[in-house]
Amino acid sequence: MRLFQDAAGTIPAYEAGQPVGKVARAAGTIDATQATALSRPTLARMPKGGRRNLLITTTSFDAWGKARAIGYPAVDGWLSFGPTEANAQQQVHTAVGQGARSYSFYVRRDSKPFRVGFRAAHNTGTNFGAATLYPATAQAGNSAVVISEVTETSFKVTGAAVHVNEGASPVFYLRFDNVEDNAARVWLRDLQVDAGPATPYQVVVSASDIIEPGIPDVWHLFNDGGDSLLAPLPTGTYEVATVGIDGKPHYASLTGDGSGKNILLGADRIADIFVRPGALTDAERLRLEEYWQQRYGAGYLIPPGMPPGARLMRQESTGNTPAAVSQPVGLLALSASNVFGPELRDGSVAATTGSPTVASQINTMTGDGRVHRDDASNIGSVRMPDLEPGATYEISFSQITGGTLSFRQASSSGSIVGSATEANPRAVFTAASTVNFVSLSANGTTISFTGMSLRKVNAPITRQETALSRPTLARWPKGGRRNLIANTFGIATVAGVTATIVEPGVWELNNLGAAAGQRADWSVPADRAPPGSTLTFSVEVKSAGEYGSLAMTGIRNSAGASVSQAAYVERLTDSWQRMVATLTLGADNTNGAQLRINNRSGDVNKVLVRNPQIEIGPAATPYQAVASITDITEAGVPDVWHLYNDGGDSLPAVLPAGAYEIAWVNHLGVIGYASVTSDGTTGTDLLRAERMADVAVKRGRFTSYEKAQLETQWGKYKP
Predict the structure, then answer these.
(1) 259 forms bridges with which residues in the sheet?
(2) Nearest by Cα to 288 from 335, 338, 248, 238
(3) For 702, which of 47, 321, 372, 609 is 20 to 30 Å away at the CA?
(4) Is the pLDDT of residue 113 over 90?
(5) Pick from 517, 175, 473, 188: which is nearest to 328 by CA?
(6) How far is CA 284 from CA 122, 255, 345, 394, in A?
């Protein structure tokens, strides 16, 4: 298609940052135009894979804040700033937001040796990361800062800081200070701030012009809010297909009547548009998505990379409480990146119904405010900015004081679509209408809050409304479970024997006398120790006093047949010993197996025990700590986070109508595939394994190349 800056089509649009007033068709019979200048999208480019550099611009200091400083045009890629007054320290700064941030840049000075201050600071002045740089000695004032590539005139700086709002404002800055020889210029290049680990440099000219050396540009139309392209569709029904710069398709139906209909639909950055009469068939959608995948990126409806511990994984379907290990998962964002859109709080305003005795307030800079309700006719609330009906949003607060906030549609006393409390100050809701309010239900109540944040959830999500059908967030060591004991942080004793916890998983046993039956033990049920299997028992012991001959007994059947003595003792550090015995279970295994600690002679007093293990096999292996069936860890072995289905659990996701293929991988790296058909309204269950570590969904079927990519990515789960 051909692009023009004006609606008449007389001025070509060919550079990033230019408005687009007309899109001339590449094929077909209809063009799209926008006569209103302020409603035109912007021609933009961004590296394939998206933007990572968070800085407002890296090619000029014009948009940066300055104090006693002036910015100069770039020379050979180097930006510089210098003084505006004599003998005064200068600085330049720009906001970088909250969260984990990585910093990288090159620095030099006109004079040498030199000193330049680098700060990642809260705008109240608190420094969260800083460095004073001396290239001659390559030293930094902060251990989190690394200096490299040192030459006589310049060097590279990398650093990191985690910004958490502890003051009145959530804004953090990247700031450079000229702290010595104030008459000289400071030169900087390749400035980059990442949300997470440092990545290769991206050149940020503006929000609509970002490039990365060696990475293809994705040209697109950027909608910065309220933009549209109007196509005069003849009378009839149509389907509009658009694709974002991440390769994700969007489909919408339109009804034509000869007037202009907006076809700029879906993401705020659209790389391609396709309109046809009637509806796209599954085969047509598949061809479009395969074409767009090659040009723009992943063609997954749900991409691989489901992260347990994700930015959006909650215990309830309402999204109030973050999920941790061994907790249920009722809502999950099925993507590791681009989970949330930009902050929308700025469009919020205080609203009044009737004549409330306390006025509502909202500070859109800080997100602090209050709401009040006298009765159903007199309410002070906060109206959110206009939302997209059917879209999902997260609203959260740093703190809520005074009760429960309700999120209501249409009016301050309308239907409740979500709520947040002092204990759970966040919620995820689907907008039922354009107009939504932050309100409350209890009469005569004032509720204050701080740090309100409102963001659209871009990632596909799955919800499980039924509590008993929610899977559990779990972690096991890579390679799976070996220790069959149900809980290695618990111990059973008989009357007279005491087990005092020294630290979690370590006990001091007292009064372990020589009398029959005086013991402590751990058990394994019969279903985990099949008849005829070989078991190895192990436990670590240490004397804390005088004792006789200590024995480890492995009980192997209902009659109590046992191994009465450890097969061998392994000497460990700090006087600890590991006792190990191996035996083969008989056919009668009604009682499963037990690992017992008892005494053979004399009285055992103050014996320390830890790390009990019962495993199938002829030899002892490294100890695995078992807190529960969903929480098992092993020192030095990576955790494999996954979703555990204990029977009858599911994660339904409503997919657009059509045919799909689901790919999933379990905690041991075993991959499965299944073809499903969605009717567009019924949820499709994505929980495809008893222990599922990841899932991906694609319209149509995965190609051999895509399967090979998945198997490479998911190979990390294999033992």
Answers:
(1) none
(2) 248
(3) 47
(4) no
(5) 473
(6) 51, 20, 39, 34
Q: What is the pLDDT of residue 354?
A: 93
Count of alpha carbons within 13 angstroms of residue 653, beta-carbon side? 22
Backbone angles phi, psi at 283, to 5 degrees: -65, -40
What is the CATH number that goes with domain 79-194? Answer: 2.60.120
Q: Quick one: tokens of 10?
A: 């007389």
Q: What is the DSSP string of 221-232?
A: EE--SS---EEE
What element of type H or E holds 713? helix 704-713
Q: What is the pLDDT of residues 312-347, one digit of tens each?
A: 789 999 988 888 899 999 998 876 666 787 888 888
The answer to whether 624 and 547 are in contact (CB under 8 A) is no
Half-sphere exposure of 496 (CA within 13 A, CB side): 13
- pLDDT per residue as tens digits for the range 468-494: 999 999 999 999 999 999 999 998 887
pLDDT at 256 over 50: yes
294-319: average pLDDT: 67
- Domain limits, the chain: 2-48+218-296, 79-194, 340-458, 492-616, 645-716
pLDDT in tens, 394-409: 999 999 999 999 999 9
Look at residue 103 in the predicted model and tell me its pLDDT. 86
Highest CATH level, class, for 492-616: mainly beta
> What is the b/e burial string over 266-303, where b = at least 16 CB atoms within 10 angstroms of the residue's CB?
bbbbbbbbbbeeeebeeeebbebbeebbeebbbbbbbb
Nearest to 15 by CA among 199, 216, 217: 217
CB contact at 8 A, 220 and 267 = no
pTM of the model: 0.59
Residue 708 three-state SS: helix
Q: Would 340-458 and 492-616 be classified into the same CATH topology?
A: yes
C-alpha distances out from residue 594 to 528, 540, 574, 608, Å: 12, 16, 27, 19
Amino acid type, 592: G
Q: For domain 340-458, is the CATH number 1.10.1390?
A: no
Q: Looking at 114-118, 374-378, 415-419, 562-566, which range is the least confident one?
A: 562-566
According to DSSP H, which parts of 542-639 are helical? none
Count Cβ atoms below 10 Å from residue 365 Cβ, excluding itself.
Answer: 12
Separation of alpha carbons 597 and 702, rounded Å: 55
Of 471, 463, 467, 507, the residue nearest 487 (C-alpha): 507
Identify whether the C-beta of residue 183 lies closer than 8 Å to the C-beta of residue 69: no
